Amino acid sequence: MDSIFIFTRNPCTRDTIRRIFADAYQTHVASSTDQLWAGLKTIACDCLFIDLAQMESLAAGLDGPPGPKALIGQLRQLRPMMAIVIIAAGNGIRQAVNYMKNGASNYIAEPIDPEEVRLVLDEISRDRLQQSELAYLRERLWQDDSLDVVQTLSPLMKKVYDSVMSVGPTKTTVLLLGETGTGKSFMAKRIHRHSNRKNGPFISVHCGAIPETLIESELFGHEKGAFTGAHRRKPGRFEVAFGGTIFLDEIGTISMAAQVKLLTVLQEGIYQRVGGDQPLNANVRVIAASNTDLKAMCEAGQFRKDLYYRLNVFPLTIPQLHDRKEDIPLFVDAFLKRFNQFNTKNIQGVHPDVMNGLLNYVWPGNIRELENLLERAYILENSPIMMPDSFPPELFDSVALPADITIRQVATLAEVRKHGIEEIERRYLQELLLRNKGRINASAAEAGVGTRQLNKLMHKYRLDKAAIKKSLKV
């Protein structure tokens, strides 16, 4: 904080606050409501100290209906990030708390205690720093995601993306299902981006990584003194996600007590901090995810059925990577672009044997396993193309001949050999052109042949450049 505004009728209070922050902050004093409004329009104020009497004067001058909520809203329109601290005497504490419920940051009591004022301002500074860090992390998250694959050649994934486009603009709760590493978190972000809340925060919570004793506090926040170690009030993830989307990953791991509170949020749209009795509005869209069978957990008594039905309004299953292998070349291209952006290397593709191994591997860890495998190989690779030596040998254990070669029983060895070579060439050229987005010059250079020879091979195997480019835009 750099600038503080003071608006109070008590000169002793005014002078005390000015004296407390004289060395650290630039202080401004308003002597009338008009002077305050004019000052807030021209001065980038970080914190406003204002007494109850002056708040009432400001409220009386509003054009619309008076009241704490309307007044706080007017102040926020001028200075959205400004902290508002109410100054109240002993008989006005309840009214000051009412202002806090309607958006004020905190209050201090008269007569002024310098230590209390410093503590209040320190808490506001910490909260502001926390919000800045969250904003930075969200911005970093969006930048990282800009390299993620959104194209697909898989009919299964096309249906998933169609469903995302349909459910995105609604308020409906979404339940994402699928194995670990299939991209549930990425899909949750896409739903958020296509929603009416896209300008609000996207808060991701990995429920399985939070101890059972802390999950309620993390999700819903806690009041000061709610439990041992709760030295100050802490906002929960639902509070931070206000106006946006909260993504609850591994939802099946949360405790029964947290399930009850989450059910209340979904049914009534309200919740309470741990140790608090004030209901808070949960203006949040919920997206949950699980890699376990929640229905089976309900039957086993490990998950509440009523909560399951509330979460399962719009279930969306993300297919495993081995069910969408046609997208592997697209993932390889996207990951290499990401690695090149954050490293000094410039690796442009993978060896045909590597691609063949990637296409035939089972991928128990799905997309996450593919990314980790490529990143490891990228670190080891010293050539412009990722070679088989940079990958673990087990990647190539499952490589087999094309299926239609093995079933041809009435054929000479020469015929089988010729057909096998042609099939390998066709697949190689198709993957090469996909990787290079149909660019003939780049594909020919990677293959080590001339553009004329590449065009002849494309004609031989009926590979159309326009069709390949069109498939990438799907």
UniProtKB/TrEMBL annotation:
Question: Could you tell me which SUPFAM superfamilies the record lists for this protein?
Answer: CheY-like, P-loop containing nucleoside triphosphate hydrolases
Biological process per Gene Ontology, one example term: regulation of DNA-templated transcription
Q: Which InterPro entries match?
A: AAA+_ATPase, AAA_lid_NorR, CheY-like_superfamily, P-loop_NTPase, Sig_transdc_resp-reg_receiver, Sigma_54_int, Sigma_54_int_dom_ATP-bd_1, Sigma_54_int_dom_CS
Q: Which residues form the Response regulatory domain?
A: 3-125
The molecular function GO annotations come to: ATP binding
* Residue intervals of the Sigma-54 factor interaction domain: 150-379
Q: Does the keyword Transcription regulation apply?
A: yes
Keyword match Magnesium: no
- Keywords on record: ATP-binding, Nucleotide-binding, Phosphoprotein, Transcription, Transcription regulation
> 4-aspartylphosphate is carried by which residues?
D51
What Pfam families does this protein map onto?
Answer: AAA_lid_14 (PF25601), Sigma54_activat (PF00158)
Give the protein name, as stated in the record: Fis family transcriptional regulator
Which species is the source of this protein? Desulfosarcina ovata subsp. ovata
